[in-house]
Write a structure and sequence with these properties.
Oligomer: heterodimer
Shape of chain B: globular
Strand content of chain B: under 5%
Order of helices and strands of chain A: HHHHEEEEHHHHHHHHHHH
Number of strands of chain A: 4
Largest sheet of chain B: 2 strands, antiparallel
Helix content of chain A: 55-70%
Strand content of chain A: under 5%
Structural class of chain B: mainly alpha
Largest interface: A-B, 48 and 46 residues
Strand order of the largest sheet of chain A: 1-2
Shape of chain A: elongated
Number of helices of chain A: 15
Structural class of chain A: mainly alpha
Largest sheet of chain A: 2 strands, antiparallel
Radius of gyration of chain B: 24 Å
Number of helices of chain B: 17
Distance between the termini of chain A: 10 Å
Helix content of chain B: over 70%
Radius of gyration of chain A: 25 Å
Number of strands of chain B: 2
Chain lengths: 344, 385
């Protein structure tokens, strides 16, 4: 088991290295750097000055040197101030070093956000905290509801309840966040006026009034999928011999479901819930932009829209890490929960 | 001047009436399918359940809407009639006396016509991109599952690499105006569009190797047709000027194929690993058939059930992806009538007007719902066999 986890962690590190290299390459394409230079200099700067700005701030160094600096395996060089000829800070708002220094991701320095004029760490981690809060409430709503729907539907296959709930869960998987978000806003904010159509005030403190719509919108897309998986797993368990034995022993249907079926039926949904995280990540971006909630997704969109190199790299690192770590947890957890695999 | 309105009943009747070519086509196709359903195989079996009928009905509805879009929609989707700005549903346009059934948007365009034309964009790009993703996934997934070993390790690593990217980040990196100045989208298009040509060439070669009369005709058709479309799509140099695609549409297309082919790859690989242990594969191996013959003519036909179901779900998922692209204003032109862009425009103004937001959201939702119902019913039917 330990060697399995270690091997997986090795693959994970390699994947992250490859992915950050790809992201680094794509962000540093010619047109993107030009866009960055335009946004960082005064209006109407000549093409020559734009180029000078890029050279001065070290964007024209060798690609692999710069990737190494970001990673922390090569020392970060200070830039030379053209007026005095002395070494100067690359971006004064980030306290960049004046001497060459190993300061990359491996040392815990995520770099400098050019859009927000601060360090990436001071922007990214509060945003992650805000998104974590959102995720917590989404999971707290999504998991119980979807498991309940799945179990009720799978308990008696082919019954009226089963068919109704199945169609409802298909409908919910057909509703992406930007569709359900609009529909919920129309119904609950514009029409009934019960809830707030914007979650901008949620950064000060969350209330039922400003936080329900984002949570609902995010949860609804996942509910259908998890419910369908739970139903399939439940249907399979209910046809097993030991369920029949329990029924023949004279146990009531309810206690068979709760005591014998549930435990075995809930192994598969665990994996599915874990693998839902990558989907939730996309959903988070949509919902945070739609409801103006200042979290991770909002930061990602701002970084991508303004070609903020270090911030976008930080965002991709975080999201890729989340995707890979949840895959790992789902594999390990599956082996842990399922006794047949654990013994082998 | 005061804008005149028709009442709610008039709107419903009017909208139903505008869809008349769709109703006629639907009656013809559904009627024919019902009559001959015994002889239509898997498609015919769909008509045995209510879910299946609903799925076919919704999908065909949008298909015919896309085909007859110019007849159905009363207005040009891009035309702006300034007096109709932000009008409520049922407003009568003064010049032509035609009705803005679902009202006008903030640029005074007809919401109804835009919704109808939006179906065209979705129904062209989504199935085509899914088709290419299937080709790429099948061509790479078969050898990965069949041979295993190094090929499998490398290809699976690459597939997992792409799957570990959050889709939205991938789109923000791959679908930008700047990237069209670089050769990257064209190189990717050049790579992806090669797969169908390779697929069909190998398909015919392995089957008709010993029958040159059939082989040369089929290979010739594949190479000429494939090469023609290839030159038109990748280099935009079609000598007859029929095959053409806008650079930004090519960019979207490539990004969507790139994002969804690893999923197909995984499914095909898993199915191949399962099927290659069957007896008929062993029989073919004993006969001395070549590996590619076994993969394409023995394994692939037996994997078709799950693949068809997956294709249906995937078209729906691609539709959602296209909507996401539109919602973030990536790739598609800002005035494009596609549903995602329309939802983006309307959702910014929800506080003042809600009517421009509802038609595109309901359209997108119903189309994806139709595809999901279709997939669900197909899965049930193929499980019965």
């Amino acid at each position: 088991m330990l060697s399995f986890i270690l091997r997986r962690l090795g693959t994970m590190a390699l994947t992250m290295l490859c992915l950050t290299l790809i992201v680094f390459f794509l962000i540093n394409l010619g047109p993107n750097l030009k866009k960055l230079a335009i946004s960082q200099t005064e209006m109407h700067t000549s093409a020559e000055d734009l180029e000078n700005w890029l050279v001065e701030h070290g964007y024209r160094q060798n690609f692999f040197v710069r990737y190494g600096q970001w990673l922390g395996v090569l020392p970060k060089q200070p830039i030379t101030d053209p007026a005095t000829g002395k070494p100067a800070q690359r971006f004064s708002f980030c306290n960049d070093p004046v001497e060459p220094k190993f300061s990359g991701v491996l040392q815990g320095d995520f770099g400098c956000s050019t859009k927000f004029k601060t360090t990436v760490a001071s922007k990214l981690f509060p945003a992650l905290g805000a998104t974590g809060l959102l995720m917590f409430w989404v999971l707290a709503v999504m998991v119980p509801i979807s498991l309940l729907i799945g179990i009720l539907a799978g308990m008696r296959e082919g019954s009226r309840t089963d068919r109704t709930l199945s169609v409802a869960s298909i409908a919910s998987t057909a509703t992406p966040e930007y569709v359900s978000g609009v529909i919920f806003t129309v119904i609950f904010a514009s029409w009934l006026g019960w809830l707030n159509g914007s979650a901008a005030s949620a950064s000060q403190g969350i209330t039922f009034y400003n936080f329900t719509l984002p949570v609902m919108t995010l949860a609804i897309y996942g509910i259908g999928y998890i419910a369908r998986m739970t139903r399939a797993s439940m249907v399979e368990v209910m046809t097993q011999q030991y369920i029949r034995t329990a029924r023949l022993k004279g146990l009531s249907f309810g206690s068979v479901v709760v005591k014998h079926a549930l435990r075995n039926a809930l192994i598969a949904p665990f994996t599915v819930i874990m693998l839902q995280f990558p989907w939730l990540l996309t959903g988070v971006v949509i919902v945070e932009v739609m409801f103006r909630y200042q979290g991770f997704g909002y930061t990602l969109v701002e970084a991508a829209g303004n070609n903020d190199i270090d911030l976008l790299l930080g965002c991709s690192l975080v999201s890729v890490f989340i995707v890979l770590i949840t895959q790992l947890i789902s594999d390990v957890g599956y082996a842990f929960l399922n006794p047949r695999i654990r013994v082998q | 001047m005061q804008t005149e309105y028709i009442n709610a009943f008039g709107i419903i009747i009017g909208v139903l009436w505008r869809f008349w070519p769709v109703w006629i086509a639907l009656i013809l196709v559904m009627g024919a399918s019902f009559t001959y359903k015994k002889r239509l195989g898997l498609y015919g079996q769909l008509f045995d359940s209510g879910v299946g009928i609903a799925g076919v009905f919704i999908c065909l509805f949008w298909l015919f809407t896309a085909i007859f879009a110019s007849t159905i929609s009363p207005f040009d989707p891009l035309a702006q009639v300034s007096v109709m700005k932000d009008t409520l549903p049922g407003a009568i346009e003064p010049a032509s006396k035609l009705v803005y059934y679902f009202g006008g948007d903030k640029l005074a365009r007809d919401v109804f016509s835009r919704m109808v034309y939006g179906s065209q964009i979705v129904l062209i790009i989504a199935p085509a991109a899914t088709g290419f993703a299937l080709m790429v996934g099948i061509t790479l997934g078969l050898p990965a599952g069949y041979y295993g070993g190094k090929i499998d390790t490398i290809l699976s690593f690459l597939a997992n690499l792409v799957l570990a990217f959050p889709v939205i980040l991938l789109f923000y990196l791959l679908v930008t105006p700047g990237i069209m100045d670089t050769p990257i989208p064209y190189a990717m298009a050049g790579l992806f569009f090669l797969f169908p040509i390779i697929f069909f060439s190998v398909l015919f070669w392995t089957r008709f190797k010993n029958r040159p009369d059939r082989l040369y005709i089929l290979l010739g058709i594949t190479l000429i047709l494939g090469g023609w479309i290839y030159v038109g799509l990748v280099f935009d140099k079609d000598p007859l000027h029929i095959v053409h695609i806008d650079p930004n549409q090519l960019n979207i297309f490539v990004a969507v194929v790139f994002a969804s082919s690893p999923g197909v790859f995984r499914i095909v690989r898993g199915l191949t690993m399962d099927i290659k242990t069957r007896d008929y594969v062993a029989a073919a191996q004993t006969r001395g058939e070549s590996p590619w013959y076994i993969m394409l003519w023995e394994i692939l036909p037996n994997a078709r059930g799950p693949l068809i179901v997956d294709a249906c779900l995937r078209i729906g998922y691609t539709t959602i992806l296209l909507g996401t692209l539109g919602y973030f204003g990536l790739g598609l032109a800002p005035e494009s009538p596609d549903w995602g862009t329309a939802i983006k425009d309307a959702s910014r103004l929800l506080r003042s007007f809600i009517h421009p937001a509802l038609p595109p959201t309901i359209a997108l939702m119903s189309f994806v719902l139709g595809l999901n119902l279709l997939a669900d019913s197909l899965r049930e039917q193929s499980m019965k066999d």
